[in-house]
Amino acid sequence: MKKLIIFLSILIFVGCSTLPDYIESQSVMDANDTMQRAQDAEEEGLYTQALHLYENAFDLYSGVDNIKGIIISGIAIVRQYYYLEDMQTYQQWLTKIDTIIESEHSNLMVLKVLLMMEVAFDQEDYSQVLMLSKLAQTDNKEYNTEVQCYRLLSLLKSDQSYEEEFEIIDKNLGSLKRMFNKNKLNDPKIVSYAAYTLGYALSRQQKWLDAIEYFEEAHHYDQLIENESGLADDVYVMGICYQNLGDKERALSAFIRAKEMYENLLDEGMSAAAQQKIDSLTK
Question: DSSP string spanning the chain?
Fold first, then answer.
């Protein structure tokens, strides 16, 4: 299913917004640009390349002692080491960034907790995800929605009730869409991910038509921001819904389109899965 990489922290660029009368530091502007290129590489699964870029950004932020930039880029570096399965270096960087957060910017502790939730979810340690979610108290609508998405999916995976989380995400989704329209989101992907999560929960309840409504909403926002990997997942799961509704034509169309997108993304596993669906519908 669709994976949410924590880009919320990456896109909170760290210029001198509190000093509007001054020109933004060249080092910070260069670091922000490097972070964007690192994010692009990470989205494509190029974790070694992303790591090098995040490290370059970290060095630029460190050169001017930009604490927020140091923490944000440091969290991103930690995540790359996890993806690259270098757990020793992962832990070393996590400890280093944790020290800076606790000492200098405790309100960004939620970023570390969200990273740990992502790791625990990836390892299918759903009880750990739920425990960590209690530490991720925040008034930030985007972070709160991400926490609730992890909670809902973990409760679902462990066969527990998730009605409260569903209602919170659904309520937040309305606010996030309004923020999207006013260009006030740090990471607009949170809108499509929230809608996708709700659709996924409904599909697990076999409420196919209701699920499609949310998947179509996710698809709409992923189109607006040109989130190619998100679009591929949206179309694929809509194909599953149509298949279960007995709408062979729309299901086949969805799987054909999803396969093309996965091939463009070089996602061999999902491309093969889409092809299997196509084959099953054309026999």
Answer: -------TTTTS----TT-TTSPPPHHHHHHHHHHHHHHHHHHTT-HHHHHHHHHHHHHHHHHTT-HHHHHHHHHHHHHHHHHTT-HHHHHHHHHHHHHHHHHH-GGGHHHHHHHHHHHHHHTT-HHHHHHHHTT-----HHHHHHHHHHHHHHHHHTT---HHHHHHHHHHHHHHHHHHHTT--S-THHHHHHHHHHHHHHHHTT-HHHHHHHHHHHHHHHHHTT-HHHHHHHHHHHHHHHHHTT-HHHHHHHHHHHHHHHHHTT-HHHHHHHHHHHHHH--
Question: What CATH number does the domain containing 57 carry?
Answer: 1.25.40.10
Residue by residue, pLDDT tens for the chain (283 residues) are 665 544 444 444 444 444 444 456 888 999 999 999 998 898 888 999 999 999 999 999 999 999 999 999 999 999 999 999 999 999 999 999 999 999 998 888 988 999 999 999 999 999 999 999 998 878 889 999 999 999 999 999 999 999 999 999 999 999 999 999 999 988 889 999 999 999 999 999 999 999 999 999 999 999 999 999 899 999 999 999 999 999 999 999 999 999 999 999 889 999 999 999 999 999 8
Range of the domain at 85: 26-107
**Total domains in the fold of the chain:** 1
- Domain assignment of residue 244, yes or no: no
Does residue 279 sit within a domain? no
